[in-house]
Design brief:
The protein has 2 domains: about 100 residues, no CATH class; about 60 residues. The protein is about 75% helix and about 0% strand. It contains 5 helices and no strands. Helix 1 packs antiparallel against helix 3.
Length: about 180
C-alpha cells in the first residue's frame, strides 16, 4: 500500500460556510437548551416563593449577584462557541480534503487518493472513495492496454481512434 502523506492543518476554520453553519447550529441548540432550563428554574422559583413568601429576602440576595451570573453566562457561551468550532472542524476538515481531491481528480489525476488524519470524521467515506478510484484507475488502465493491443494488431483502427476520441472528450486530461 502507498505511504500516506502526513499533513497538519494550521487553522481551525478550513471551510468557512460549512463550519459556521455547524457552529451556529451547535451554539443555537445549546443556547435554546440553556434558556429552557433557565425558564424552568425561574418558573419553579416563582412557584416556591408564591407558596413561601418568607423566601423573598433570599431571592433578593440571589438577584444581587446578577452581574456575576451574566459574566459566567458569557464565559459559558464562549466555551460553547469554541467547542462548536472544534467539533465542526472534525467534519469540515475532511469535507475540505474531499473537495480538493475531487478537483485534482477532475483535472486528470486518477492516481490521487484521499488521506484523512487519524480521528477525523468520514474515514469510511475515505476508504470507499479510494477503493472506487482504484477501480476506476484499473478500468482506465485495462482500456489503455486494450487500445494499444488493438492498434498493434491494426484491428479496426478507425473505430479504436473514434472510441478513444470520445473517451478523451469525456476525460480530456486524465492521467494513469
Amino acid at each position: 500500500m502507498e505511504n500516506k502523506p502526513q499533513f497538519q492543518r494550521k487553522t481551525i476554520i478550513v471551510k468557512r460556510n460549512l463550519q459556521y453553519r455547524y457552529m451556529f447550529i451547535i451554539s443555537f441548540t445549546s443556547l435554546v437548551a440553556f434558556m429552557l432550563v433557565a425558564l424552568d428554574v425561574i418558573w419553579n422559583i416563582y412557584k416556591v416563593v408564591e407558596e413561601h413568601p418568607g423566601m423573598i429576602p433570599m431571592l433578593d440576595e440571589i438577584f444581587s449577584n446578577m452581574p456575576l451570573m451574566a459574566f459566567k453566562l458569557v464565559i459559558y457561551i464562549l466555551i460553547v462557541v469554541i467547542a462548536s468550532a472544534v467539533i465542526s472542524h472534525k467534519i469540515a476538515g475532511p469535507v475540505y480534503k474531499f473537495e480538493k481531491s475531487c478537483e485534482k481528480i477532475s483535472q486528470g489525476d486518477i492516481a490521487h487518493r484521499v488521506y484523512l488524519r487519524k480521528g477525523d470524521s468520514l474515514i469510511e467515506l475515505q476508504e470507499a472513495f479510494n477503493n472506487m478510484m482504484e477501480k476506476i484507475q484499473s478500468v482506465v488502465k485495462v482500456n489503455e492496454d486494450l487500445k494499444k493491443y488493438l492498434l498493434e494488431k491494426n484491428i479496426e483502427k478507425e473505430k479504436i481512434e473514434e472510441t478513444d476520441k470520445k473517451i478523451k472528450e469525456i476525460m480530456p486530461e486524465f492521467k494513469l
